[in-house]
Design brief:
This protein has six helices and four strands. The protein is of the alpha+beta class. Strand 2 and strand 3 form a beta hairpin. It is elongated, with a radius of gyration of 20 Å. The mean pLDDT is 90.
């Protein structure tokens, strides 16, 4: 069930995102809300799957994974689920999207070096249902936002 987030939901999410260590009491004080209100709203957002968890945002390059590539895969017809399952076993693949247009899947891959990326792509192309791959390296990342930024600024 999806529903629009109200301004209070967005303010709570924004504060929690800005300071993962902030307690619900601190969030409540900052927003001038009862702690129970903050708790109930966060609980509902988690239960409904709107908020999927509280995790820090990691900079891949600063964590040792300075190479970013996007790989488009063409796969055998009827092999979607088994291909996804095999690709999920490769930890350097941090996103997999089913796409339209040229290709069937788009993977976001991080690697420690170009040689490491080559090894990862070899693992990808070794998946029996992968028929063709095409990779593009990101030279620079000029914008990163997430859905919170969109919702807060809408």
């Amino acid at each position: 069930m999806s529903r629009a987030l109200d301004n209070t939901d967005l303010r709570i999410i924004e504060l929690v995102r800005a300071n993962l260590k902030a307690s619900q009491t601190v969030v409540a004080r900052e927003l001038k809300l009862a702690r129970g209100t903050v708790y109930a709203r966060l609980d509902r957002l988690l239960r409904e799957g709107v908020v999927e968890g509280y995790t820090p945002v990691i900079d891949p390059a600063r964590a040792g994974y300075g190479v970013l590539a996007f790989t488009t895969l063409e796969i055998m017809q009827g092999s979607h689920d088994e291909t996804i399952s095999a690709l999920r076993a490769i930890p350097e693949i941090i996103e997999i999207h089913t796409i339209t247009g040229e290709g069937d899947l788009l993977c976001r891959i991080v690697a420690k070096s170009n040689d490491h990326l080559h090894e990862v792509i070899q693992l990808v192309t070794a998946v029996p249902s992968v028929e063709r791959s095409q990779s593009q390296l990101a030279l620079a990342t000029t914008k990163t936002n997430d859905i919170v930024d969109l919702l807060v600024n809408a």
